[in-house]
Design goal:
The protein is an all-alpha fold. The protein has helices spanning about 1-60, 65-100, 115-120. It is about 80% helix and about 0% strand. α1 (about 1-60) runs antiparallel to α2 (about 65-100).
Length: about 130
């Protein structure tokens, strides 16, 4: 009786770990979708608007007006900071994407699937002395 209860508890832990792994992958995939398809494009668009505005102030309106030139330079600096922040956020969501596809917890299943058994390298037969 003690062996079967240990096997059942090991099986229960294995099922819980499998469900947690799947839940973690789903959360990471949801964050990946939100980040890549919604948040990152919005951040790059927000960063692009001041960049264009700063270029217009600095290059088009700035040569005749020093105040516009300084304003354009400040806008270009802010836009560069925004672009760096957008790139960092994109990198974080890329990491979520990588984790979502490559994350797995170790299996506690005493009877691995055939694919897992095929990964086990057999020990070669050696002659006895």
């Amino acid at each position: 009786m003690g062996d079967s209860s240990g096997y059942i508890s090991l099986l229960a832990v294995s099922l819980v770990m499998s469900n947690l792994t799947n839940l973690f992958k789903q959360v990471l995939n949801g964050l990946d979708f939100f980040g890549h398809n919604i948040l990152v494009p919005i951040l790059f668009a927000i960063a692009l608007i001041p960049f264009i505005y700063g270029l217009v102030n600095y290059l088009v309106l700035g040569p005749g007006d020093e105040e516009k030139k300084e304003q354009g330079r400040g806008q270009l600096f802010k836009a560069n900071v925004y672009l760096v922040i957008a790139t960092l956020v994109w990198t974080v969501f890329w990491s979520f994407s990588w984790l979502g596809t490559n994350f797995s917890l170790p299996s506690l299943n005493p009877n691995p699937k055939i694919e897992e058994r095929e990964k086990i390298q057999p020990i070669p037969n050696t002659p006895l002395r």
